[in-house]
Design brief:
The complex is a heterotrimer of chains A (about 70), B (about 250) and C (about 425).
Chain A: H1 6-15, H2 17-28, H3 34-62
Chain B: E1 4-9, H1 18-27, E2 37-43, E3 50-56, H2 65-69, E4 75-77, E5 83-85, H3 95-99, E6 106-107, H4 112-115, H5 122-128, H6 133-137, E7 152-153, E8 156-157, E9 168-169, H7 175-178, H8 185-189, E10 195-199, H9 206-213, E11 216-217, E12 229-232, E13 242-243
Parallel strand pairs in B: 1-12
Antiparallel strand pairs in B: 1-10, 2-3, 2-13, 4-5, 6-9, 7-8, 11-12
Chain C: H1 3-11, H2 15-41, H3 61-72, H4 74-86, H5 92-116, H6 125-128, H7 130-133, H8 138-159, H9 162-168, H10 177-183, H11 192-223, H12 236-263, H13 271-302, H14 305-315, H15 320-342, H16 349-371, H17 373-376, H18 391-414
Helix pairs in contact in C: 2-18, 3-5, 3-12, 3-16, 4-5, 4-11, 4-12, 5-8, 5-18, 8-11, 11-12, 12-13, 12-16, 13-14, 13-15, 13-16, 14-15, 15-16
The chains are: A mainly alpha (about 70), B alpha+beta (about 250), C mainly alpha (about 425).
Chain lengths: ~70, ~250, ~425
């Protein structure tokens, strides 16, 4: 019997619901200003990309140190 | 499709720990690590004192919590029933060790050269001159003393111990031997034939026939892990047993 | 406050700052050296060992510290959300300080996880294998939600600073001009209405996310494990959540107290802020003690043997001194804060801060008491384990505290620690 991928439901179906709500409010909430919304959301998106890149860089740097 | 499992006949086991030593030699495990372990338990009061030996390899569970929690999929279930660790992918978070209720996991706390018993590359040539083990096996010594440990199975490096610092390892049911048609080293070396290995889904296998002869029980069955190591005879250890042996503090 | 006073920490740096920054930098550098030592030699340099045959604990100070920092990180958003969603204007003066504490704490939480893993050079494997593992591994859930929470918290902080930076730009140090340009990217005053609307929903999202992180994803790391006696419990979610909120509010009290004292902001940050925060803290501490009672009674009454061994060790055995110290500090704090609240004791900012500091420290010890004992008393009859952290673990843990303070001090040199609008 395989183990169900329960995390997909828990994380993307429940825990992240507030984030989806925020995104919906950003684009569809009054006042409608998709330009501002995209600008503001560029920050967390950019930070996320930066974090992932940073993880990769840190790992690469550490591979020179870890025996 | 096979589903490997093991039966441990506790009516035959004398607690000699040949299996423990055989495993260590076969898998080149680091100092202080014992993938195969034998509990020696003393219980009850005089004149009914009992001493029980309980060999404990990895259970290679059919519902292995260690595989569920691994964040990178380094700990995984092989289709033949092995539960294995990919030493090249493991990030050493030790969550598998935390999730396992049996205590079968060993972490490489030290660098291989600090925790190995013998530097096959350097010391062998000093001791034996030419024809050192590394020359004989065509390897560069550490860590792949047993050349089978360098083999990958489905592209994953899963056999043999003590190869990288900071990664987890445990009993592999000697996949590198089984894939060659041999028995795991503990099974092969038991002088009492107390360890029986084979395909649980094959009614004619050694292990299936052993399980049909005697009633079997498993450790911590109530946790739902579906371990594939079955005990014949003996009894599950109580919580108040007295330990007669301990591991070596690394 | 007057703009001059607000900008003073940024424009003037005294000898005290340099001395403190110097000392903290030494501690942080020592932490890096210790980490390098650990990276080169492996985790053998810690007191961590395999449980069972190795009779040790594979998780210890680093993981406990990680949980501790995640807890503290909730103070920022708890206060910001209270201000924005519940319109509790009285706490506006401390909003930004609290948000900075959140951001820094999340980073330190990440640092402690990085210290704990055996092969940090392979950390990116979690991303490479993400989609095959997020369905199953609570650790991956952790990484997911903490990363999202961190980027959203940083965004919340930065976006809420835009008006202030725009107004103060010419009076801020030229050295950090590129930083201010980044903060003000695409800025125009007309964005305010939409921006505030978004910040409102973001505050709501963050408070919900925080509840599902501190009361969800983090406790699930432990609560879903049948393997470890004492961990496997549905109580872990609420238990961790209350603990997190308590340590968060306590930490904010301590930080705000220090900032207020060091910068001389007694007028701007009134004593009412402290008495106001001390009330939810007292309630949370009572709730936490109530949960400890639930947890321990449930086990001690007629619990399974492994669980009983752990509870005995906590209440009467090896861990009793630490356990009762934690309970004692929390109980004394509740008593003090409660009496202050009831008016039986005169309100005192200083003593409230001391009580809060005690709570923060006690909740660090409590996290160690959650993580470690279960490994030392396994379900199967292995020998009772031992765990003693080494100098490496202390150096790395305390190093992150020093680094956190350093980062906070750095922030105070670049950005105003209070919203300008507050003075109106």
């Amino acid at each position: 019997m395989t183990h169900a991928a329960i995390g997909l439901v828990v994380i993307f179906g429940i825990v992240l619901l507030p984030v989806y709500l925020f995104l919906l409010a950003a684009f569809f909430g009054k006042p409608r200003a998709p330009g501002v919304a995209i600008l503001m959301l560029g920050l967390p998106a950019g930070l996320l990309a930066l974090s992932l890149a940073g993880m990769w860089l840190l790992g690469s740097a550490l591979s020179l140190v870890v025996p | 499709m096979v589903r490997y499992g093991m039966a441990v006949d506790l009516d035959r086991c004398t607690g000699c720990t040949a299996c423990v030593l055989a495993c260590k030699m076969e898998n080149n495990t680091p100092e202080g690590a014992s993938w195969m372990w034998v509990f020696m338990h003393e219980s009850e009061r005089f004149p009914d004192v009992k001493i029980d030996a309980l060999p404990r390899p990895c259970m290679h569970c059919d519902e292995p919590p260690c595989t569920y929690v691994c964040p990178v999929g380094a700990r995984f279930s092989h289709e033949d029933g092995f539960v294995l660790t990919d030493f090249e992918r493991c990030i050493g978070c030790r969550y598998c060790e935390v999730a396992c209720p049996y205590g079968v996991n060993f972490f490489n706390w030290k660098r291989p050269e600090e925790s190995a018993y013998f530097d096959f590359g350097k010391e062998a040539s000093q001791l034996y001159g030419t024809g050192s083990v590394s020359e004989a096996t065509g390897t560069d010594g550490l860590p792949n003393r047993n050349p089978d440990h360098a083999k990958k199975y489905d592209g994953r490096l899963v056999a043999g111990g003590g190869q990288f610092v900071g990664v987890m390892e445990k009993c592999t049911f000697c996949i590198h031997r089984v894939k060659k048609g041999l028995k795991p080293s503990c099974v092969q070396n038991c002088p009492m034939d107390a360890l029986i290995f084979g395909d649980l889904d094959d009614p004619e296998s050694d292990v299936s026939r052993a399980l049909s002869r005697k009633k079997a029980w498993r450790l911590l069955e109530e946790l739902g892990t579906e371990p594939k190591v079955f005990y014949l005879g003996g009894r599950p250890p109580g919580h108040d047993v007295r330990m007669l042996n301990t591991g070596k503090r690394v | 406050m007057e703009t001059e006073k607000l900008l003073k920490p940024i424009r003037e740096t005294g000898i005290g700052f340099y001395a403190a920054a110097g000392a903290l930098s030494v501690v942080a550098l020592w932490m890096l050296a210790a980490w390098l030592y650990q990276l080169r030699n492996g985790l053998i340099v810690t007191g961590l060992r395999d449980w069972g045959v190795g009779y040790g604990a594979p998780w210890g100070v680093y993981i406990a510290t990680f949980v501790w920092y995640i807890g503290i990180a909730h103070g920022g958003i708890a206060i910001s959300a209270a201000i924005r969603l519940l319109r509790l204007e009285a706490y506006k003066p401390i909003a930004r300080i609290a948000e900075v504490v959140t951001v820094i704490s999340l980073m330190m939480a990440g640092a402690n996880i990085t210290f704990d893993i055996g092969r940090p050079d392979r950390i990116f494997n979690m991303i490479v294998n993400y989609w095959s593992r997020v369905g199953h591994s609570p650790l991956v859930w952790d990484v997911t939600v903490i990363l999202i929470y961190m980027v959203l918290s940083i965004s919340y902080l930065v976006i809420s600073m835009r008006d202030d930076i725009a107004a103060l730009r010419r009076r801020l140090p030229r050295l950090f001009a590129p930083l201010y340009a980044l903060v003000l990217f695409g800025y125009h005053p007309e964005e305010r209405e939409k921006r505030e609307q978004m910040l409102w929903w973001l505050a709501l999202a963050l408070i919900c996310l925080m509840t599902l992180l501190s009361g969800g994803v983090v406790p699930w790391l432990f609560g879903l494990m049948v393997s470890q006696a004492g961990w496997f419990s549905a109580l872990q979610g609420p238990y961790f959540l209350i603990g997190a909120l308590a340590s968060a509010i306590a930490a904010i009290i301590v930080v705000v107290f220090l900032v207020r004292r060091v910068l001389g902001w007694e007028k701007e940050i009134s004593a009412e802020v402290f008495s106001g925060l001390s009330k939810p803290l007292a309630v949370l501490l009572i709730a936490y003690l109530y949960l400890v009672l639930q947890e321990q009674l449930t086990i001690l009454y007629a619990g399974p043997p492994a669980e009983q061994s752990i509870s005995h060790a906590l209440l009467f055995g090896h861990f009793a001194p630490l356990f009762w110290m934690v309970i004692g500090v929390m109980a004394v704090s509740v008593a003090y804060l409660g009496l202050q609240w009831l008016g039986a004791l005169p309100p005192s900012v200083g003593r409230t801060a001391i009580a809060a500091a005690g709570v923060v420290a006690a909740l660090w010890v409590k996290r160690v008491l959650i993580v470690v004992p279960t490994f030392l008393y396994p379900r199967l009859p292995y020998p009772t384990g031992i765990y003693v952290p080494t100098w490496v673990e202390w150096s790395l843990f305390l190093g992150t505290v020093a680094l956190a303070v350093l980062l906070f001090m750095g922030f105070s040199k670049m950005f105003p620690l209070m919203e300008m609008e507050v003075r109106r």
